[in-house]
Amino acid sequence: MHVFVTGGSGQTGPAVVTELIAAGHTVTGLARSDAAADRLKSLGATPHRGSLDDLAGLRSGAEAADGVLHMAYGGDFSDLDDMMRRDTNAIEALGRTLEHSGRPLVTTSGTLVMPADRESTEKDEPDTAGIAAFRIAGERACLDFADRGVRASVVRLAPTVHGPRDHGFIPMLIATARETGVSAYVKDGANRWPAVHRLDAAVLFRLAVEKAPAGSVLHGAAENVTFKSIAETIARGLDLPTASLTPHEAAGHYANPFMATAYGFDGPVSSAHTQKLLGWTPTRPTLLEDVEHGDYLATPAS
User: Fold this and answer.
1) Do 228 and 146 sit in the same domain of this protein?
2) Is residue 135 domain-shared with residue 151, that is, in the same domain?
3) Which residues neighbour 148 within 8 Å (Cβ) at sequence distance 6 or greater?
């Protein structure tokens, strides 16, 4: 299969491109810069110059492919409405190109769209008032194409997709611990945090492209980890004390209000349906194993 990929040069994207090519697929990847194009070439993919705002370029990339995997998401997080519009417009352009062809369109969302304080399944509705509600419009735009002759599916990734050279929530948490001298959690730290190893996520994306039924919602989460256990693992590695913060204290402790809210969010999810549907079995190290034995706690370069 020839797969057109957006976001292939990002953090998770290279692992996905590598997984697709190793499975015998060919990949063309959207590249908005020379650096991105060079990264894609180094992985064995063909660059397709353009951006999420270049809708004609997205359409031409999709038209030449047997399927599309859309992982790119960006913009100014201070303007979530604009980010939603960009993502939705890109999905609409990709989906319309694939209409009535039976070809796959796999797009990306996050498990933080789900309701708080209970384990959510793939069958549950996202929380339209939740902390990641800005991702729901993209989900719906994709799934609408399931009734228009597209094998459309959505992968909701865990907030932490961990592995070497991660630059997401966990490195930010570690940086804050180094700066403040404490490894903190919110309230009792019992809130649960979904996680998945990057290489397990890559397998899930490949399986979704290959065989996810039209209209599928998939959960890319291998486990739910209490936030206190994450903070304690960081504390041991950095030889720091732990600290419990009130939500008000957390708002001043972390770099921005969204991080303070996210780190206190209880959002466990199940991926049992995804695993059964696609035969996906996560096998890579857990988040705590990766924090303890990976590169997360390495001394930063001066």
Assistant:
1) no
2) yes
3) 95, 99, 100
Amino acid sitting at position 51: S
Phi-psi region at 227: left, alpha or beta (left = phi > 0; alpha = psi -120 to 50) = alpha
Mark whether 156 and 50 lie in a shared domain.
yes
Alpha carbons 101 and 91: distance in angstroms, whole number: 16
Residue by residue, DSSP assigns 41-52 as HHHTPEEEE--T
- Report the pLDDT value the prediction gives residue 133, as an integer from 0 to 100: 95
Is residue 102 within 8 Å of residue 151, measured between CB atoms?
A: yes
Query: Are residues 189 and 144 part of one domain?
Result: no
Q: What is the mean pLDDT of each run of 10 residues along the chain (302 residues)?
A: 96 97 98 96 97 96 98 80 93 98 98 97 97 96 98 98 94 96 98 98 98 98 98 98 96 89 96 98 98 92 58
Whole-prediction pTM value? Answer: 0.96
In a domain, 109, yes or no: yes
Q: Which amino acid is at 126?
A: P
Same domain? 88 vs 182: no
What is the residue range of 228's domain? 164-193+224-267+284-293
CATH of the domain at 185: 3.90.25
Radius of gyration from C-alpha coordinates of the chain: 19
In this predicted structure, what is the pLDDT of residue 9? 93
